[in-house]
Amino acid sequence: MIYYERKTFKDISFEQQIEKLNDKFPQKLLLGTLRTHQKAACDEEMVTLICPRGTTISIQVAQYGTSASQSSCSSELTEYQPVAVEVVGDTSCTWPSTLQYSLLQTVVEACQKKRQCKFHTSPKAFGVDPCPGSRRFVEVAYKCRPYEFRSKVGCENDVLHLSCNPHSRVAIYSAQYGRTEYDSIQCPQPRGMKEETCLEPYATETSMRECHGKRRCVLSADSKMFGKPCRTGSRTYLKVVYTCVPRTVLKERYESAPEEDEVAHDASDLEHEDVGK
Predict the structure, then answer these.
(1) Predicted pLDDT of residue 272
(2) Cα(210)–Cα(221) distance, integer angstroms
(3) Among candidate residues 144, 165, 145, the one with its CA nearest the CA of residue 8
(4) CA–CA separation, 9 vs 175, rounded Å?
(5) Which residues does the UniProt record annotate as the domain SUEL-type lectin (predicted)?
(6) Is 7 in contact with 152 (CB distance < 8 Å)?
(7) Share of the chain above pLDDT 70, in %
(8) CA distance 165 to 133
(9) SS (H, E, C) 229-273
């Protein structure tokens, strides 16, 4: 028998460094598969960040720089590429770490865990301009992270079918295959078999290989796909936590060709559609 469960991803608080925030993300494998977007804007401009429905902003980089040309500003790239910094005017000026950190805090407070946000790029907002007369830009890199997940549980030899609506793809958060001593009520042991905890260490990677970035996939709760982590006679089970995300959320390597029922729709309609099934 297959069991369904729906839950909301627990918010992760921002501490002093973006790296620490990412370390606290329970499943870094998923974070590593999300596309990184970049925004850069000059001087007094207002920056707007936006993520598709079902995802929220996760700031990766926010920093000040100076640029020799307007081409380094007001740009939006689909994949993050570091922008070279070239100082114009007073080359002796420096950007103090306190100002860089103030920007990081400002961007995180304005945008983290929101679907869309706006913030101002002027360093005057922080009470100081260390490079007067120089062209400035703010560079922000961010990911669109899903926040709501569902789970399916299949007992030994069950088959789990994961699928998503048009324009969306499966994103695996985590997977467990085997047993846990205190969380196996749905798939009880055979009579006389002692309870145990035994888990396949690479169940998440296996599930991602089979399903991540696909519109639909099949996972078999058996030793052929996941191995034999438990004693002979123990009843294993598979628990998969996943979600459906817009195709643009995942890195290009996970992109698949549009299907017949997706070609007829404009991608902009995604903002108003339910991506999950």
Answers:
(1) 40
(2) 13
(3) 145
(4) 15
(5) 41-145, 154-245
(6) no
(7) 67
(8) 52
(9) CCCCCCCCEEEEEEEEEEHHHECHHHCCCCCHHHHCCCHHHHHHC
Query: 192: Cβ–Cβ under 8 A, 6 or more apart, which residues?
Result: none
Domains in the chain, CATH or no CATH each: 34-146 (2.60.120.740), 148-259 (2.60.120.740)
Residue bearing tokens 């058996």? 222
Distance from the Cα of residue 173 to its chain's centroid: 9
CA gap 245, 155 in Å, rounded: 26
- Quote the pLDDT of residue 250: 95
DSSP letter at 12 equals -
Structure-token match 């429905």, residue found: 53
Strands (E), the chain: 2-8, 36-42, 46-50, 55-66, 75-77, 116-120, 136-146, 148-155, 159-163, 168-179, 198-199, 216-220, 237-246
pLDDT in tens, 162-197: 999 999 999 999 999 999 988 778 899 999 899 999
pLDDT at 141 (0 to 100): 92
From the CB of residue 276, how many other CB atoms can be counted at a distance below 10 Å? 18
